[in-house]
Write a structure and sequence with these properties.
InterPro entries: MoaB/Mog-like_dom_sf, MoaB/Mog_dom, MoeA-like, MoeA_C_domain_IV, MoeA_C_domain_IV_sf, MoeA_linker/N, MoeA_linker/N_sf. The protein is α/β, with parallel strands linked by helices. It is about 20% helix and about 30% strand. The two termini are about 40 Å apart.
Length: about 425
């Protein structure tokens, strides 16, 4: 990785291969993973486990009735000697022919040999209980779900409501977690409109409204105040905007300015901030002029700048290629393993570049269909796609080929069907 002072331009390395770039960015993110903190269960939704979730006790911790009915000892009919409700520890059933009424979730008393369901029981005029227990026990045994100290969920797992509930059932009051990364967005380009239809040489900014939503789906916190732009097309404005955003964000995404045109000031601005490149351009189409740089503050804290191309689809390619693996590393999550899909139609290659081609999935057949309207400046195809099929360099995709698939991100906690 190359670094530069404010008076020396950054030395750009050659384009990284797409797979290499993805791995390199993840490793850098993992090396700079956000610190682990102990937080109460009420505050951990959306965080990431920094340590495995274990249970403090057997699950269940005691024999637990699965039904409403009668806990009986020996053969019937049975004489009623009490009632057991959830939340109490009953005395043992000491005598054959005795029973206690029991509620679902209540602790089964020692000495009970069976539970008779209430709907399958009868009370005699003398007050005795009759019925036939089912062959299988009607209670959950201690440790049936998990043994005390057992690891249930590994570190690096996103925390969602289901995991919070599991942690509570294990007796945990707090968890060691990593907070969601804080992200900001700087929109570059004097030609951009932020309202109304495009015209007279100016185009509507499509990334300012959409990139924060993508970042949230990758687990980031993005406030409205963290989205700034359009930033004036001058070097001082770029440096000032980057310096301000890096003061609070773990990751600053920028749109446009990743090349070396007359108003492309991102590279000089990074040099002025003393940044060093992690990746500068990736051999992928669309999205080639993407970058990730690292900025180390005086206190040693590392923050990142992701330069997204100005063309909207190319910007999303940069998000899935560089930003997604970086964020996985920062949160201490594993690098997502790409699923594979079967091509239903041909997908052309892009020579020595990896081709990320938008596609929709047929979840019944498990096949991928390329979509139309997929120019780097277009968003129509993206709006109907499920993700990108990956066509390796110097190859093309033919019907029936199995290829990697990069899914577009879901909402935090959402699971694919």
């Amino acid at each position: 990785m190359q670094s530069a002072s404010a008076t020396e331009p950054l030395v750009a390395p050659p384009p990284a291969g797409w797979t290499e770039a993805r791995s390199r960015v993840y490793a850098v993110g993992l090396a700079g993973a956000l610190p682990a903190t102990l937080r109460p269960l009420a505050e951990v939704d959306g965080h990431t486990l920094a340590e495995p979730l274990t249970t403090r006790t057997d699950l269940p911790a005691f024999p637990t009735s699965s039904v409403d009915g009668w806990a009986v000892r020996g053969e019937g009919p049975w004489r009623v000697v009490g009632r057991v409700l959830a939340g109490s520890a009953p005395p043992p059933l000491a005598d054959d022919g005795s029973t206690v009424e029991i509620a679902t979730g209540a602790m089964v008393p020692a000495g009970a040999t069976a539970i008779v369901r209430v709907e399958e029981s009868t009370r005699t005029p003398e007050g005795l209980v009759t019925g036939t227990p089912r062959p299988s026990p009607e209670w959950r045994l201690p440790g049936e779900e998990a043994a005390a100290g057992e690891e249930l969920v590994p570190a690096g797992t996103p925390v969602d409501p289901a995991l919070v509930g599991l942690a509570a059932s294990c007796g945990q009051d707090s968890l060691w977690v990593r907070r969601p990364p804080r992200a900001a967005l700087l929109v570059f380009g004097d030609e951009l409109l932020t309202a109304g239809p495009p015209g007279a040489g100016r185009v509507r900014d499509a990334l300012g409204p959409s990139v924060p939503a993508w970042l949230r789906r990758y687990g980031c916190q993005v406030r409205a105040a963290d989205v700034v732009g359009p930033v004036a097309d001058t070097l001082p404005a770029h440096v000032a905007a980057l310096r301000t955003s890096l003061g609070t964000a773990d990751l600053v995404c920028t749109t446009g300015g990743t090349m070396n045109g007359p108003v492309d000031h991102l590279h000089p601005a990074l040099a002025a901030l003393g940044a060093d490149y992690v990746v500068n351009t990736v051999a992928v189409r669309p999205g080639f002029p993407m970058l990730l740089a690292r900025v180390t503050s005086d206190d040693g804290r590392v923050r990142f700048v992701a330069g997204l191309p100005g063309n909207p689809q190319s910007a999303v390619v940069a998000l899935v290629s560089l930003v997604a693996p970086l964020l996985a590393g920062l949160q201490g999550r594993p690098l997502p393993v790409l699923p594979h899909t079967t091509l239903a139609e041909p997908v052309p290659g892009r020579g020595r570049y990896t081709h990320l081609a938008l596609a929709r999935l047929d979840r019944v057949t498990g096949t991928a269909y390329p979509v139309r309207h997929v120019g780097s400046a277009m968003l129509r195809g993206l709006a109907t796609a499920d993700g990108f099929v990956v066509i390796a360099p110097d190859t093309s995709g033919e019907p029936g080929d199995r290829v990697p698939f990069v899914p577009l991100p879901l909402l935090p906690g959402e699971r694919a069907t």
